Amino acid sequence: MKLPIIGNLHQLGLLPHRSLQNLSKKYGPHLMLLHFGKIPVLVASSAEAASQIMKTHDMIFSNRPKSSIPHRLLYGSKDVAFSPYGEYWRQMRSICVLQLLSNKRVHSFRCVREEETSLMIEKIKERCISSSSSSLINLSDIFVTLTNDVVCKVAFGRKCGGEGNGKRAKETLVEFVRLFGVFSIGDYIPWLAWVNRLNGLDARVERVAKDIDEFIESVIEEHRNKSNVDDASSDFVDILLEIQKEKLAGFHIEHDAVKAVILVRFLVQQALINQPFP
């Protein structure tokens, strides 16, 4: 039942995927139109409907609705995941597909994966030796740490953890990831955007945007000051800076676009493992 102003927001509950499943059983086995505030939302609840949207009519549904938090944290949505469909999106996608995620490039990071896997195995051995026979070793945390270490080294050329600046970088990245899952009422009911100022969300987003920008700028500056960078030791930052400097993409890449692409690659990987740093 759609209500004035809030639409169907009240029907989502704490587990939206379960709520949507129950609603689809009652109101539509294939397609169902809801309203989240002023935003119309078409729910596809069958494989056939999803195929029509994702394949047959993909151009019509290719744009994401603008979200205030990603827009602020990703430099005005200059990344690939949140930028609107168009020439800019096609250009940035070609860089990701041909330069960052090609089979050759993925293979070039094999040494990073092997090195971190060896370190993980040694860590498990040490814990087995030092622990009593009744102690348990949390392999889930170890595997998540492995994935994060690989992702950070591939993206930034260094791990994000430890003490000092590494610890601060880790905390900043954790908060960066968390904000993408925060509900912003202004995105759905624009005239209630002032609520985000009262509850501290706007200030939180601005603080993280400032911290994440300082972090990624320091990473880029480190890479610009490096010497003797070869393909074997190149990470995402090296690759994007080379493309920008040599104009290998055939068009000018803005500095903010470089930062946004690096950050969204990290964000996607965190979404795939479904949790931030342990």
TrEMBL record:
The keyword Cell membrane does not apply. Keywords: Heme, Iron, Metal-binding. Transmembrane segments: none annotated. GO terms for molecular function: metal ion binding. Its cofactor is heme. InterPro entries: Cyt_P450, Cyt_P450_sf. It holds the Pfam family p450. Belongs to the cytochrome P450 family. This is Uncharacterized protein. It comes from Cinchona calisaya.
